[in-house]
Design a protein that fits this description.
The N terminus and C terminus are likely disordered. By secondary structure, this protein is an alpha/beta fold. It starts with 16 loop residues before the first strand and ends in a 19-residue tail after the last helix. Helix 11 packs parallel to helix 13 and helix 12 runs antiparallel to helix 13.
């Protein structure tokens, strides 16, 4: 077995009963993946209609019960609720006596390590933080995507092997994250993945406005290549008018965005400034080429002249 291959349930009998508190997009998928590895989902909690549907689809025949009943039935409990709800949930479950000694309590929040589970720890539970670095749809495709997915793992040293084993059983690859580094780790993932969705959605809207009938087909190859280049080469993959110092082009962009989609201007300017800073620090953008560009970005409106009138940078490849 490799870390990318979940255990076949036929390879061994079920070991742990699994419960899910919070049938959002993540919990049912993880429980279904654990079932493929030989564990046995026995209970799930969810409130919304969407949660009930997800549980029924990914965990058929698993009863829907209140959170306290999930803990009463399960040896391994997945707490898959929004970050802000997690501390209160843990405290409430511990205060009401729902947590049992020796019970594995796992949360999937990227923001928190195991300290948020201290109330459960004091009740005798075994705390684990297992965060899949993956975006979830709430459908069966999520189980397949866990193969080879990295998990941010935080746990007491004596539980490290158990935490990593659970990740491997789900087909994932464990990556150890120190408790104090969890917020930075999560910010890095959100910066890359969550903001990417916003950028792509804005880009598709602008292309539609410009008359492109299939913006997804236009962007797919371009963004796929850009992502691959960035993962391979980092800042060396930077291209486009900001990296070249083409201030006139950037001014024209801002002018058009202000006319057709003013809500996108602030984001464009912020990302252009960040790109310019990185291009400068890596020697791709020369200081003399950057002066007009930074003036345009400082103004933030493209009003430093008629769009396209500012000096342009060298004619290198895009």
């Amino acid at each position: 077995m490799t870390p990318q291959e979940p255990l076949d349930a036929r390879d061994r009998p079920a070991r742990l009963t699994v419960g899910v508190v919070g049938a959002g997009r993540v919990g049912p998928a993880l429980a279904a993946s654990l079932a493929l590895a030989g564990h046995r989902p026995v209970a799930v909690s969810g409130v919304s209609d969407a949660s009930v549907r997800r549980a029924a689809t990914l965990l058929p025949d698993v009863p829907l019960v209140p959170p306290a009943e999930v803990l009463a039935r399960a040896e391994l409990v997945l707490l898959t609720v929004p970050d802000d709800a997690l501390p209160g949930l843990v405290e409430g479950l511990a205060e009401t006596g729902a947590v049992r000694p020796g019970q594995l309590i796992v949360h999937t929040s990227g923001r928190y390590g195991t300290k948020v589970l201290d109330p459960a720890l004091r009740a005798g539970a075994l705390p684990l933080a297992l965060h899949p670095a993956m975006t979830f749809t709430g459908t069966s495709v999520d189980v397949q995507r866990l193969a080879g997915c990295s998990f941010g793992v935080t746990a007491p040293e004596q539980l490290r092997l158990a935490a990593e084993a659970l990740v491997i059983e789900m087909g994932g690859e464990p990556e150890w994250i120190d408790e104090e580094s969890r917020p930075l780790y999560h910010a890095a993932l959100a910066l890359g993945a969550n903001h990417l969705v916003t950028l792509v959605a804005q880009s598709m809207e602008l292309l539609r406005t410009a008359g492109v009938s299939a913006p997804d087909r236009m962007l797919g190859p371009l963004l796929g290549a850009a992502l691959d280049n960035a993962l391979r080469s980092g800042d060396a993959a930077l291209t486009g008018p900001v990296a070249r110092g083409d201030a006139g082009t950037v001014a024209a962009h801002i002018h058009e965005l202000r006319t057709h989609a003013p809500q996108t201007v602030a984001g464009y300017v912020a990302m252009a400034r960040a790109t310019a800073d990185r291009a400068l620090s890596h020697g791709m953008l020369k200081p003399e080429s950057a002066e007009d560009l930074l003036d345009v970005l400082a103004d933030g409106s493209g009003a430093t002249g008629t769009p396209g009138s500012a000096g342009t940078g060298p004619e290198d490849s895009r």
